[in-house]
Amino acid sequence: MCGIVGYIGNNQAKDILIKGLQKLEYRGYDSAGIALVNDSGVELHKEKGRIAALEDAIGKEGKGTTGIGHTRWATHGAPSRENAHPHQSISGRFTLVHNGVIENYQQLKREYLADVNMASETDTEVIVQLVESFAEKGENIDEAFRRALSLLHGSYAIALIDKEDNDTIYVGKNKSPLLVGVGDDVSVVASDAMAMLHITKEFVEIMDQEIVIVKQDGIQVKKLDGTVVERDTFTTDIDESDTEKGTYNHFMLKEIDEQPFVIRNIIQKYQDDDDGDIKLDNAIRAALNDADRLYVIAAGTSYHAGLVGKELMEKVADKPTEVHIASEFLYNEPLLSKNPLFIFISQSGETADCRGVLVNVKEKGYKSLTITNVPGSTLTREADFTLHTHAGPEIAVASTKAYTAQMAVFSILAMDGARAQGINTGFNAINELGLIANAMETLCDQKDRMEQVARDYMFDTRNCFFIGRAMDYHVVQEGALKLKEISYIQAEGFAGGELKHGTIALIEDGTPVVGVTTQEHVNANIRGNIQEVIARGANACIISTEATKEEGDNIVLPNINELLTPLISVVPLQLISYYAALHRGCDVDKPRNLAKSVTVE
Ligand code: AGP
Questions:
Q1: Domain of 289: which CATH number?
Q2: At 131, which CATH number?
Q3: Ligand 1 in contact with 511 (CB < 6 A)?
Q4: Quick one: pLDDT at residue 594?
Q5: Which of 518, 469, 599 is nearest to 71 (CA)?
Q6: Are residues 372 and 506 in the same domain?
Q7: Does 144 lie in the same domain as 13?
Q8: Is the C-beta atom of 380 inside 6 A of ligand 1?
């Protein structure tokens, strides 16, 4: 969702901020802006739409070596120039950008700002007006900023500049991600380290309800009560080239192609150098062993990975497991077991719905594990344990490599759980993952074939159904999500046997139905379901394996362990979605209305 950048250094800030904002484009946004402090005061530029529109509007203007920037994903107030950040206080002295949601902004307006004419419909504007009103009453800026922040209920990452001081950016954070970076005579601010890798790799983590006074030659971290906090820097291991498209036209295709490497990377990271077997932290192993039931909490694609994870935990590690959509669990908690372990799956590690659940379960004293692709993210910091998916930065909004990495990490967790209990699973996760990486490579090499399937089934359709049974049911839900989010084709994934209980009414002449059949024990059943839709005019596309194939199937996957087939059967679905979206002229990497990191509930 919204992205924040800030810079204080010896160079002109404009291009650095714009480059930073471009690196944050993946998060999703509908307007963008920057503000620069220079000798004549503060220069403010903001525009609705893409960063390119902002750049055009700035043109040759934009002077100053201190500045802040923002990409906005609208929550309070429509996407418009007026509602775009930065926002300014009435006198123009303070300028601020914000990511998050201020729940009590109406109340604050009534109580403290009744005589202030707001320039926007946003919740954000109250913050900058509060700072000004406290500063006018004689508080120094540090105090005024901390006082304003201590009144806020909700989530925020904030950067504020003062027209009268071109060597300070005030930043604050609560529940929304924000980092401060330090370099040689330069300091930066960013929602995500990758936005400022062109300036520094050294960052400082900010905790909730802390502020940082950022100056060119150093920073000071404080709690909201003014107590100074000492904090070490860390060096991020993200490589700048990981955040570039290279020779690809889209991040999504690059990330699909990276999947074999990601799986091999996971093998390396989770393999014990001594005996070549899986190596998990002892504390995680113990927590898993002690739990009487696992509760997997996630959203979207990560939820789909959780569905596969549940199967693996139950079938391989004999561990009762439930999977819940985070936003549902948050307000409609099921009956819990006596000794649960909560597993949060989140590519970004920032999803607000997941965090809401984590806060609640921590209050109750339950143990938690985060499976994430972003070390240092909020869910990582707040859970008891973390397993990293090691997929490298995922920039396309549509999750691909993070999804397969999540399932791979689940397979390791399940194998380790089985071993800890002395269960003989009959397979070795490390070997199987090696075969999976090879199979993914084979599938990624068949792009022409995938494009042909997209052409034959998806190029002109209004809707599309995906069906599968057992493990395949989980994958078809992900296939449908992938297609709808980037191509805007209405797509749904169903359990094969469920169609005739209602959905089959939607099948007409030419309706595309993708049937996935990788599970031998239900191969005949799903093929029966496919015949039922063909009999009603459906245009059926069948994805099978060497073990389940029949003549005429469209795509045949290499044989791997049946339980792990979701890791490879999703690859053609990702590629077909990609080509369908491409053909339909959609913005593949940045689909409309969507954000990569969903930091509001
Ligand atoms: C995936 O393609 C989606 N864009 C989306 O469903 C995503 O998986 C979901 O928002 C959860 O995000 P997370 O993994 O960062 O928690």
A1: 3.40.50.10490
A2: 3.60.20.10
A3: no
A4: 87
A5: 599
A6: no
A7: yes
A8: no
In a shared domain, residues 428 and 492: no
95, 185: one domain: yes
Triad 58, 59, 60: Cα angle to 5° = 110
Is residue 28 pLDDT above 90, yes or no? no
* Listed residue (96, 65, 20) closest to 185, CA to CA: 65
- Mind telling me the catalytic residues? 2, 596
The answer to whether residue 342 scores a pLDDT higher than 90 is yes
Please provide the DSSP assignment of 463-513 as one string: EEEEEE-THHHHHHHHHHHHHHHHH--EEEEEEGGGGGGTGGGG--TT-EE
What is the sign of the dihedral through the CA atoms of 77, 80, 86 and 87?
negative
> From atom 5 of ligand 1, which residue's Cα is the shortest distance away?
300
Residues 484 and 389 in one domain: no
Q: How many domains does the chain have?
A: 3
**Domain encompassing residue 488:** 446-601
The 10s digit of each residue's pLDDT in 266-310 is 999 999 888 888 889 999 999 999 999 999 999 999 999 999 999
Q: Is 591 in the pocket of ligand 1 (CB under 6 A)?
A: no
Rounded Cα distance, 500 and 503, in Å: 6
- The residue among 193, 222, 244 that closes a domain is 244
Instruction: Determine the distance separating the centroid of ligand 1 and the alpha carbon of 598, expressed in angstroms.
Output: 8
**Exposure string over 563-575, b if 16+ CB within 10 A, otherwise e:** bbbbbbbbbbbbb
Q: Judge if 526 and 489 occupy the same domain.
A: yes
Read off the amino acid at residue 519: Q
pLDDT bucket at 512, cuts 50 / 70 / 90: very high
Q: How many CA atoms lie within 13 A of 495 on its CB side?
A: 6
> Domain end: 244, 271, 300, which one?
244
Claim to verify: residue 293 and residue 320 sit in the same structural domain: yes
Reply yes or no: is the peptide bond before residue 393 cis, omega within 30 of 0: no
Residues 531 and 514 in one domain: yes
d(CA 2, CA 278): 38
